[in-house]
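Narrative summary of target 7.
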Amino acid sequence: MLSDDSISFYRKVSSEQDYDFLQFYIDNTKKQEWSGEAGWQRFAYPVTAGNHTFRWVYEKDFMATGGSDAAWIDYVVFPPVSMTVGIGQIQPVTSGVNVYPNPAKDLVHIDYFLTRTSDVLLTVCDVSGRIVRTVQSGIQTTGLNSEQLNSLDFTPGIYFVNLQIDNEVFVTKMLISR
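Modeled conformation, tokenized:
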């Protein structure tokens, strides 16, 4: 890692309560574990500058089953790193917009990362390009910014999430289903 920062991810668990676990480790130190029925939720953990090992483990006791007997992780955001390749340097991708889960049936999470305090306009448009919701407008701070939408406020279909950061525009598709 280039500097002190954090790792974040979303997790969902459907397992036998108190017997089968999704576990998360940083440098072989267990940070947290989950079991039973736990819906999609975002977690973030601080990470100091330097090299680290991140590990997710699904531990099952094989005696019985519960729920879907599974765990999921998604939208992992690692701390920024720098790598030397050839004679140049690759800089971390730190801007953009992510919609999760996609397709969505209930809550929709919209995450975006700012490398500096910026003027942000975050909108949701229908397929004709008409703005149906302004989610965020104004100055936002450096780092990971998160918004939530209730998908029940939208008619099922395809939408576009538009993120304008100063003079840059990022667009991603969002599917609302029932």
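Confidence is low (pLDDT under 50) at residues 83-94.
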